């Protein structure tokens, strides 16, 4: 006799182009084998593909680009609608991603003891708020509603610690890192073991202050044609970065590619990936670059890079220098001198480039979708 699959709901604001949304889209591919899955979205904005076996339910016809006070008003309406939906669809497990859906899940948990409620924090909470008011609201609502849920998972040990220390969240927590689908075509490490005149660098991410692309640009000042940098992404600082590139006379060395498709093809055509962020939740772009076999340099920001590049073993980096991690090079935040030295190291040491390429491929294996989903499945069923 065939066993009936349990009903699970995945709650998110949208399925737009963000990191949390990408994780959801990947997990859906595996969840359909074990559950009847419904993806519930606050707003009908879908960027990533959804398996045909997944039902999609939108709580609003409005755009996600709404003022904060309207989103807060929506939150009240969504809570009532979502609660009715869970009852009507006989949902046994409700999993939410990001703050507002997590709060909705917390309210649901308070009113529906028979539904297992699991929440997921995807960014470093103390540094992932848009204003002092937003931080104040988080300090109030996280302890109340997060603690109503059964358990929480994030993508970094530092996120969980921040929730405990600064937001008084005390439910069971676990770290489940972001999954990745390993690409078929990757860089052949030995192809990097040769002398080159120009080291081709690449980075990817929204052009905003947090990603700190200007640090990479400044590291290339006065390097003539020894380096070429491609920046994938768009954002509010595009004009500022364009002007800085012009001021430093780096127009031939630095290219703002904008939003692109076929990101992996861009990664394949470079020698090194650089992550310059001040903060991360878990850096998908860094993991994706490693999965392509690129040697990587990253700021040692909280959270993610240290876990990815050095198994989270603590390190100390002198200003203007870099650290040779187990799987990549680490530099201090906003240290363009340290970045320049790390770039020089990779440029002048082809054996090291090839070695870190092999290590990147090796490291990415641990994050393949099957491995991460196995941990996720055990987590929600224990």
Describe the structure.
It is a single chain. With 382 residues, the chain is an alpha/beta fold. It folds into two domains: 7-179 and 368-381, Rossmann fold (3-Layer(aba) Sandwich); 189-365, Glycogen Phosphorylase B (Rossmann fold), CATH 3.40.50.2000. 40% of the residues lie in helices and 18% in strands. The two termini are 25 Å apart. 43% of the residues are buried.
What's the helix and strand layout?
Layout: E1 7-12, H1 19-31, E2 36-43, E3 55-60, H2 68-88, E4 93-97, H3 99-111, E5 116-121, H4 132-145, E6 151-154, H5 157-167, E7 173-175, E8 199-204, H6 213-219, E9 227-232, H7 238-247, E10 254-258, H8 263-268, E11 272-275, H9 284-291, E12 296-299, H10 305-310, E13 323-324, E14 329-331, H11 336-348, H12 350-365, H13 369-381
Parallel strand pairs: 1-2, 1-4, 2-3, 4-5, 5-6, 6-7, 8-9, 8-11, 9-10, 11-12, 12-14
Antiparallel strand pairs: 13-14
Helix pairs in contact: 1-13, 2-3, 3-4, 6-11, 9-12
Task: Please tag this protein with its features.
382 residues; alpha/beta; Rossmann fold; 2 domains; 7-stranded parallel β-sheet; 7-stranded mixed β-sheet; 14 strands; 40% helix
